[in-house]
UniProtKB/TrEMBL annotation:
<dbReference type="Pfam" id="PF02518">
    <property type="entry name" value="HATPase_c"/>
</dbReference>
<dbReference type="Pfam" id="PF06580">
    <property type="entry name" value="His_kinase"/>
</dbReference>
<dbReference type="Pfam" id="PF02743">
    <property type="entry name" value="dCache_1"/>
</dbReference>
<keyword id="KW-1133">Transmembrane helix</keyword>
<keyword id="KW-0597">Phosphoprotein</keyword>
<keyword id="KW-0547">Nucleotide-binding</keyword>
<keyword id="KW-0812">Transmembrane</keyword>
<keyword id="KW-0902">Two-component regulatory system</keyword>
<feature type="domain" description="Histidine kinase">
    <location>
        <begin position="389"/>
        <end position="591"/>
    </location>
</feature>
<dbReference type="InterPro" id="IPR050640">
    <property type="entry name" value="Bact_2-comp_sensor_kinase"/>
</dbReference>
<dbReference type="InterPro" id="IPR003660">
    <property type="entry name" value="HAMP_dom"/>
</dbReference>
<keyword id="KW-0418">Kinase</keyword>
<keyword id="KW-0067">ATP-binding</keyword>
<dbReference type="InterPro" id="IPR010559">
    <property type="entry name" value="Sig_transdc_His_kin_internal"/>
</dbReference>
<dbReference type="InterPro" id="IPR033479">
    <property type="entry name" value="dCache_1"/>
</dbReference>
<dbReference type="InterPro" id="IPR005467">
    <property type="entry name" value="His_kinase_dom"/>
</dbReference>
<dbReference type="InterPro" id="IPR036890">
    <property type="entry name" value="HATPase_C_sf"/>
</dbReference>
Amino acid sequence: MPGWLRRLSLRNKLVLTILVCLVLPSLVSMNVSSLFTRDAVRSQVTDSSRESMRIVSQIVDTQMKNMIYVMNFIQFDEELQPSIRELGRANEGTDKGDVLQYKQTIAKRMSTVIDSFGNLNVTVLLPNHEYVASYTTFSFNPTDFLKKDWFSAVEQVSGYNVKWIGAEPNYSKSTNQPYLLSAAKPLRKNDTTYGYVIVGLEPKSLQDLFSQYHNNESMVIIDEQGRILVDKDSTTIGTIFPYYDQLPKEDGSSFVKVEGEDYILLSSHVTSEWQLVNMSPYKTAAQKIESFRKTDFLIQLFFLILFAVILLYMVRTLTKPIARLVQTVVRIESGQLGERSNISGVDEVGRLGYVFDRMIDRIELMLEENRREQELKRMAELAMLQAQINPHFLFNVLNSIRLKIMMKGDSENAELISSLSSLLRMTINRNNEYIPLHEEIEINEHYVRLLNSRHGDRVNLRITAASDTLLIEVPRLLLQPLIENAYIHGLKSKPGEITIASRICEDGRLQLEVRDSGVGMTEERLEDLRKHLVNVPAQHRHASRSPSLSGIGLNNVLERLRIIYSHRFDYEIASGPDQGTIIVLRFPQQVGKEG
């Protein structure tokens, strides 16, 4: 039996068993039905979508044929050929009037065909850079076509084939269409190219056709590289169709999954290089069939819920005393020993409740007796502590000794005793976990004074604390371990300078710095120290949080600040050979609570 199942209560196990027995048959029935009908439904939906796409494909194919017809008309029309050839042979010596006459003849003949279509822009471009266009050329010079990347491919077109270029920026300012669907072919006779014809189709009619589909359906025309040429959304033109790699290799259909939903993907070639792609949700296409299956599911679900409610009511009635007993146990576990189940009855649950209540009565009696014993023990310990020396007596004695030494004129030793008294008072006092920063600095001044008297060395303690930081409360005896660490490891117990600095950071946190003028560390030693502080051993993390004059170490200082301020605390350590060491602490001004 799985672990999670063993942890369930008796009531939940019964409920789970009932739900499994009710739900499992329905799920099996629905899955078997879905398995047998899935292929048939998919085939029917695919045929329906293919028929809808066939109609659209015919319209698109007509537009493509119109483009081919115009290009073939220009190439083979006997009335156009003489004028095109004469215009192609024109040079600087040709009469301008003749050139104009050739162009007007060509334009007039082309308009008889183009006007019947209405949405085509036709350009006849000749090798001598002469041209005839069916659109205004004030803002666009058709000779720029010769500079296009695709123009070299047009020259390589064999026979009477067409180069399907794709979506080109609209060079005709007569419409606000951003793109034109372009194709081109060379004009040849006896394998000699005497010109080019370029046709641009305004895709508005196709976009209007594609816009008839719903938002979750898409109809696009793409090229061989998968770039979108025509879409109802003009902003996608030129981008890669997202599911190009999942298109069927031949004209046909495939299924893709988009955000957990199945889509039917149909494709059909409208030219040798362009495909018409339709993408529609399977769910929408199979709506009628799914509606029938949904109705069947709702009927089964209704009876399932009805039977489940009846059975759950019966289970709840039978297991209610057990649940009540469990709630009583939970309350007793939380410390409410006066709680009782008060379950009665002649069955097993009633007897269990009665025995449980009597057992709690006996436990409560035993706890009361134990409490009395502990109280007597504490009274005895208090009496023993009262017999010990009062710390205030020790401070008073030290002050008396200091006064006597001062009266004898030894002010230096009197000052040392005063520093020792202040330091001992702060060490013994456990009532204030946080003190103002100026008091913390004063304690360390006493500590350095005693340090100098003990070792005979002169450690100069320099204070550069900002005035707006002196009243901010910090954890008691926070800086003393860092001062001790700077003296022992930085100054190597020799004369030098230790600096305590403070300021308010831009983010409002308090920044404390402890610098020394000692030997510093190499880059390798500094890196080892940083790694050590990141991976603090377990024994340091569980060390006593109460500071002492023996030094709790840099590890414990950082761990203590992590516990108090969590992620709002950070630190930095910088050092270099013979450049001293600097330790920077940053934490909020608001006092937190340890643990």
